[in-house]
Write a structure and sequence with these properties.
Helix content: 25-40%
Radius of gyration: 19 Å
Oligomer: single chain
Number of helices: 8
Distance between the termini: 31 Å
Length: about 300
């Protein structure tokens, strides 16, 4: 079976689509093929066809912590945002990979469940959040995840326990084995609904105050080096406000790079590399990116 045969079967597959339409930075080249499966069965069919025809396969969630190079991506890109069901069962919340972290956190809160307050403003999807063990304000996904359902590239369904996910700072086993997150179940604790929502509102107010949410960005660009904070180092190095093309190190939060208008992925990457170079020279510290960088050079 060919990929476009699945399109005839009703799976939403597009050709030569600019991925800048979907990334939070509003940058990125074209996808050769782009699919929006609505069910896990459709995901399975897409994966099977890519394996049979040796088509490169890339999985994307909400594209909030992602830079796609200007050369785009060969093969098939699957965006999972149509898989967005969220269910509550007792003290557990199960969310599909394409459900937003924010929607999942607020669903939990509205059912009086505590444990996902930290995630109230994280703009990613559940799949992406699990993939990179997303965190904010002292909390991380690993603290709430009970289990993760995946589809392997070989087409096998598996469930990982929290321990099997091998979570660490901005890391999970999914980054190594290429499995596709289909859903995650979170084990939470009963709490006072109003207090939970109050705390989430407070964290979101902090986020609005500190972060440049008025511009497209990929969030916090760099992982935090042990014993150091990235923003203050960038400021001391004289790089806050530095701009290459349309990409600027944010004047509001130096750990963010924003699209001031017309930025390309190359602008972003050139600015990232400059910051890494200067910080290494000044402090002998290697800054590693938290943002995921994929795709071909232009």
């Amino acid at each position: 079976m060919e990929l476009l045969d699945l399109k005839k079967q009703g799976i939403d597959i597009k050709e030569q689509i600019p991925l800048s339409r979907y990334t939070f930075t509003k940058t990125g080249g074209e996808a050769e093929y782009l699919a929006f499966p609505k069910t896990t069965d459709e995901v399975e069919k897409l994966v099977k066809v890519t394996q049979e025809n040796k088509i490169p396969l890339t999985i994307i969630g909400n594209a909030s912590n992602l830079i796609i190079r200007d050369g785009g991506i060969d093969g098939l890109v699957i965006i999972l945002t149509e898989l967005k069901n969220i269910e509550v069962n007792g003290n557990e919340v199960t969310a599909d990979a394409g459900a937003t972290i924010v929607d999942t956190a607020f669903t939990a809160a509205n059912h009086g469940l505590s444990g996902m307050e930290f995630a109230a403003g994280i703009p990613g999807s559940i799949g992406g959040g699990v993939f990179m063990n997303a965190g904010a304000y002292g909390g991380e996904m690993q603290e709430a995840v009970k289990s993760v359902n995946v589809l392997t590239r070989a087409g096998e369904y598996k469930t990982y326990s929290n321990q099997e996910m091998d979570f660490s700072y901005r890391h999970s086993i999914i980054q190594e084995n290429g499995d596709i997150v289909l859903s995650a179940t979170f084990s939470l604790k009963p709490g006072n609904k109003l207090q939970i929502l109050d705390h989430m509102d407070y964290l979101n107010a902090l986020r609005r105050y500190k972060q440049p949410l008025e511009y497209p960005s990929c969030g916090s660009v760099f992982k935090r080096p042990k014993g150091h904070f990235v923003g203050p180092m960038i400021i001391k190095a004289g790089l806050q406000g530095k701009q290459i093309g349309g990409a600027q190190d944010s004047t509001k939060h130096a750990g963010f790079i924003v699209n001031k208008g017309g930025a390309t992925a190359t602008d972003y990457l050139d600015l990232i590399h400059l910051i890494q170079k200067v910080i290494k020279e000044k402090y002998d510290i290697d800054l590693h990116t938290e943002v995921r960088i994929i795709g071909k050079e232009n």
